[in-house]
Amino acid sequence: MARPIVGIIGNAHLINDQYPAHAGGTMNSQAVAEVAGAMPLLVPADPRLVSVDELLETCAGFLLTGGRPNVHPEEYGEEATEAHGTFDRARDAITLPLVRACVTRGQPFLGVCRGFQEVNVAMGGTLYPEIRDLPGRMNHRMPPDGTLEEKFELRHRVHFAPGGVFHRLMGAEEVVTNSLHGQGVKAPGPRVEIDGWAEDGTPEALYVRDAPGFTLAVQWHPEWNAGSDPVSRPLFEAFGRAVAEWAACPRSRHLKTA
Fold it and tell me: Is residue 7 a contact partner of residue 61, using CB atoms and an 8 Å limit?
């Protein structure tokens, strides 16, 4: 039996600073294939190459990956500054309407890091350009030096809302996660439910309130050691179940929810 397809949002990248490519981390594909039990398919996030409608028909679910470029602040009504960093307008043009369509249809997605921020912006929320510049906040960015293991090591605690979605999924009110991001949620969208916070109050886990499908997103990187990490594994397993349920659902039901 064929596995359901999960579209993994790729990032624009220059190989050797010259050759343009769409790239996706191997650990994303491994988490989807080995833990979620789905077939990973890298998506070139560019509206010149793919459309949201095509993606919705081809894939059962989506992994909104992390990425160095940030969501352009014009998408949430603000002007770009140097603190906002670099952008990928092509990815914005795919992922933001894709999130909204998935929410409407009940089609599952899992947001990670930039993907977490995309969900909030797509649903009408705003972002801070640089968390570490805010009073009382710690530096959430990836350490500039060290091995990959050191960069992805567990660095801070996340506290979930008692009895909330993430508390029930993890079986714990507090977990320890890695931290590799500069931006963060400023104002959540009207339907965005913040369900987990770092020690300094930074939002770290969310879902879309009253959505008919799986809409979980996290600010950390659960794809790292997803098969063995006690926080990452249940997240990807739950995502995998949602994807399998969507794939098994009659097409007529999908059309009714679109």
Answer: yes
Residue 244: which CATH number? Answer: 3.40.50.880
Instruction: Quote the pTM value.
Output: 0.94
SS3 content of the chain, % helix, strand, coil (to 5): 35, 20, 45
Number of domains in the chain: 1
Of the residues 118, 130, 204, 223, only one is catalytic, namely 223
Query: Is 222:180 a contact under the CB 8 Å cutoff?
Result: no
Judge whether 102 counts as a catalytic residue: no
- Residue 13 annotated among the catalytic residues of the structure: no
Q: 193 catalytic, yes or no?
A: no
* Structural domain harbouring 64: 5-257
For 177-216, b/e burial (b = at least 16 CB within 10 A) is: bbbbbbbbbbebbeebbbbbbbebebbbbbbbeebebbbb
pLDDT tens for each residue of 52-76: 999 999 999 999 999 888 999 999 9
For the record, the structure tokens of 182 come out as 């500069």
Indicate the residue type of 26. Answer: T
Rg of the chain in Å (alpha carbons): 17
- What's the pLDDT at 255? 53
Q: Which of 72, 113, 159, 167 is catalytic?
A: 113
Catalytic residue among 72, 84, 167, 221: 221
Residue 256 has pLDDT above 90, yes or no: no
- For residue range 92-105, list pLDDT tens digits in order: 999 999 999 999 99
Write out the E strands in 28-155: 39-43, 61-64, 109-112, 127-128
Cβ neighbours of residue 74 under 8 Å, at least 6 residues apart?
80
